[in-house]
């Protein structure tokens, strides 16, 4: 073979190798086994750190699961949990990751892992990113990096993506989506705008962004702040008389009224709903192991109550109020946003139960298997950290959503309809406020031959969707239905 032909052949061989199922991945990135799991992975897994910032001192941790269907063609989805300050392993362990986690039967034993039939990796390649630095397994060599906010987080996450796709160039042609829930209602649109602006500016590598997904996400001070009262009234949690009193005194402004009479009526509302689990009003709120055991063994309780939280997964839905979103009755405003541990001032939290993820991700063997630094370097894994100081500096998300949808990016805004932390009433109202023409009038959508929720479609590829009976973390409560709408949306199919 001529020298020129040999060079061309070698170049083509190198190019082709990158498309044979992530042969271009970093050498130390493959995850080949996980403590607690026996068997073969249904697809390839990779994990590690991407360093960003001055002197490469910020180390952002990712766990990447390739699609079980067709990784070379299926979309790449970046998943972000909220907080701010909460790890995206929340989604990996408890929601839509490749495994279902079963709590250990003995103390100091690791959870057992089973394959998740409703993993989102059934239909997509998915990146779980701990962001910003200081959250989950991500860390910095300089503690000043833990002073952060919306804008800096979006910039850092964009830098992460650019570097990540250079490490995995075979996925650049795939459709790319950004998804998240809760405070990621801020993370997702701010990052999506950064990515879109980078594409327009020709920043390399050019990402194939197609759209974004937000679940039970905060968006706007006014709409989020005014969502609670209509929600609790519609759910039958307050009387019609009290609702009319609040309306009369507050005149539809429930979150920043200067009227003492309005405040007194709102206090009555809060007193009525104080005992509910804000993340799912159908779920009991246990206050400790002893209470949990009493409730489980109390035969006088209705079967429907005792079965609340049961799913098709070995680990029941967590009955807790911790670590998921900006707290009840406190819409996100400009300025410092306390993380959950800071907000609680180290007070014990009722309904807290993150033992499974905490035990697993702080185990030395697990950290070694997923290429995470030891605790002495990256710190202990916590679902939600108080290590960062976070500033909400991006304002309302409505302008971001309008920016993205008007540029042709597809948007799915979904809500578990029994979440009281970020009620669907706020998300429905702000999506309607964009003023887009309705192209798919309010109707039910079907999963497993049952009504799974309701949907309304707008022009400019904006869709609002509810999931019947789901709480704040929809895939945790309704895994089958979540995979259904996720899969259909990614494929551009009618939900």
Automatic annotation (TrEMBL):
Family annotation (PANTHER family): SERINE CARBOXYPEPTIDASE-LIKE 20 (PTHR11802:SF254), SERINE PROTEASE FAMILY S10 SERINE CARBOXYPEPTIDASE (PTHR11802)
Q: Which gene encodes it?
A: LOC125315915
**Native source species:** Rhodamnia argentea
Q: Which family does it belong to?
A: Belongs to the peptidase S10 family.
If you read the UniProt record, what top EC class would you report for this enzyme, in one word?
hydrolase
Q: What EC identifiers does the entry list?
A: 3.4.16.-
**Glycoprotein recorded as keyword:** yes
Taking the first listed entry, what is the main subcellular location of this protein, grouped into a coarse class? secreted
The record's SUPFAM superfamilies line, in alphabetical order, gives: alpha/beta-Hydrolases
**A UniProt-annotated Pfam family:** Peptidase_S10
**InterPro entries, sorted:** AB_hydrolase_fold (IPR029058), Peptidase_S10 (IPR001563), Ser_caboxypep_his_AS (IPR033124), Ser_caboxypep_ser_AS (IPR018202)
Q: Which UniProt keywords apply?
A: Carboxypeptidase, Glycoprotein, Hydrolase, Protease, Secreted, Signal
Q: What is this protein called?
A: Carboxypeptidase
Q: Where in the cell is it found?
A: Secreted
Metal-binding is among the record's keywords: no
């Amino acid at each position: 073979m001529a020298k020129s032909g040999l060079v061309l052949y070698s170049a083509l061989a190198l190019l082709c190798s990158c498309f044979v199922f992530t042969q271009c991945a970093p050498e130390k990135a493959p995850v080949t086994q996980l403590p607690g799991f026996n068997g073969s992975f249904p697809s390839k897994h990779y994990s590690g750190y991407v360093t960003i910032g001055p002197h490469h001192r910020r180390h952002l941790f990712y766990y990447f699961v390739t699609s079980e269907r067709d990784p070379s063609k299926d979309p790449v989805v970046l998943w972000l949990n909220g907080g701010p300050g909460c790890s995206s392993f929340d989604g990996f362990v408890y929601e839509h990751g490749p495994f279902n986690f079963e709590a250990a039967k003995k103390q100091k034993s690791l959870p057992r892992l089973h394959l998740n039939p409703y993993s989102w990796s059934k239909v997509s390649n998915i990146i779980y990113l701990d962001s910003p630095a200081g959250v989950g397994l991500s860390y910095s060599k300089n503690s000043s990096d833990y002073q952060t906010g919306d804008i800096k987080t979006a910039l850092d996450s964009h830098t992460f993506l650019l570097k990540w796709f250079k490490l995995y160039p075979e996925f650049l042609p795939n459709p790319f989506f950004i998804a998240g829930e809760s405070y990621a209602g801020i993370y997702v649109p701010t990052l999506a705008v950064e990515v879109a602006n980078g594409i327009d500016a020709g920043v390399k590598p050019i990402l194939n962004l197609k759209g974004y997904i937000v679940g039970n996400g905060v968006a706007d001070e006014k709409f989020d702040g005014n969502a609670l009262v209509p929600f609790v009234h519609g759910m039958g949690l307050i009387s019609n008389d009290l609702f009319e009193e609040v309306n009369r005194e507050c005149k539809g402004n429930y979150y920043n009224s200067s009227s003492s009479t309005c405040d007194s009526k709102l206090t009555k509302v809060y007193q009525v709903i104080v005992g509910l689990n804000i993340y799912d009003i159908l779920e009991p709120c246990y206050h400790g192991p002893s209470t949990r055991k009493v409730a489980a063994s109390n035969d006088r309780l209705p079967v429907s109550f005792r079965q609340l939280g049961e799913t098709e997964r070995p680990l029941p839905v967590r009955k807790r109020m911790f670590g998921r979103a900006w707290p009840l009755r406190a819409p996100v405003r400009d300025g410092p946003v306390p993380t959950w541990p800071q907000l609680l001032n180290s007070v014990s939290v009722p309904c807290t139960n993150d033992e499974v993820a905490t035990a697993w991700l702080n185990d030395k063997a697990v950290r070694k298997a997923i290429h995470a630094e030891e605790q002495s370097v990256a710190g202990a894994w916590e679902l939600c950290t108080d290590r960062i100081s976070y500033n909400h500096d991006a304002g309302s998300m409505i302008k971001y959503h309008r920016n993205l949808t008007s540029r042709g990016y597809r948007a799915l805004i979904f809500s578990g309809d029994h979440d009281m932390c970020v009620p669907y009433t706020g998300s429905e109202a702000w999506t309607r406020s964009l003023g887009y023409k309705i192209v798919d009038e309010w109707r039910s959508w079907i999963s497993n031959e049952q009504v799974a929720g309701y949907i309304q479609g707008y022009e400019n590829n904006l869709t609002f969707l509810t999931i019947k009976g789901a709480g704040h973390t929809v895939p945790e409560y309704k895994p089958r239905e979540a995979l259904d709408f996720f899969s259909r949306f990614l494929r551009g199919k009618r939900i």
